Amino acid sequence: MSSSGDSSLLTFLNGDTSGENPILNAANPVQWGRLGKAIGTSAIATVVAGVTDFISAGADAFVSIFGGFAGFIEGWEEPLGAGGRPTVDSPGVIEVTLGAVGSAYSSAFQFSTANFGILSLPINVAIVLASVYVLSVGLRSAASRFAGGG
After folding, report:
1. How confident is the model at residue 32, as a pLDDT?
2. What are phi and psi of 27, to 5 degrees?
3. How far apart are CA 113 and CA 121, in angstroms?
4. Following DSSP, what letter does each residue of the chain receive, concatenated?
5. pLDDT per residue over 61-117, tens digit each?
């Protein structure tokens, strides 16, 4: 079955002919030790890849949650077209709240200016001082509630 040219191939595959460290043993071509190492290494690599994916998913969830919270507070961009461009800015809680407070003061000042003329300046100052007083009383009562008071 083997021809005379096969002996050099077997000598190459078996390394030295004394049998020490052959690449392939012609009598038993499966090297169980190396096969076991390959299977063990594959199992370890699979576990490492799974742990890496789990950590990556956890980090992505963390970033997504806090990114969404930041978008809720600051505002975000909404795509108008199919490709994501152009976009429109959507206001966040800060912009909506400060915008509402600013427009309320603006409307109150315009009303007092239109109806009271020169007396609108003291009325506008009174509006601002009353707002600051209400805010300070509210913050004080909230602080006492958070600190455990009644």
Report:
1. 75
2. -75, -35
3. 8
4. ---TTHHHHHHHHHSSTT-SS-S--SS----HHHHHHHHHHHHHHHHHHHHHHHHHHHHHHHHHHHHHHHHHHHEEEEE-STTS-SEEEEE-HHHHHHHHHHHHHHHHHHHHHHHHGGGHHHHHHHHHHHHHHHHHHHHHHHHHHHTT--
5. 999 898 888 888 888 888 787 776 777 888 888 888 888 888 888 898 899 889 988
> Would you say 17 and 11 are in contact if contact means Cβ atoms under 8 Å apart?
yes
Contact residues for 141 (Cβ-Cβ < 8 A; gap 6+): none
Where do we find the tokens 């576990």?
47
Q: Smallest Cα–Cα separation from 22: which of 32, 10, 35?
A: 10
pLDDT at position 123 over 60: yes
CB 105 within 8 Å of CB 127? yes
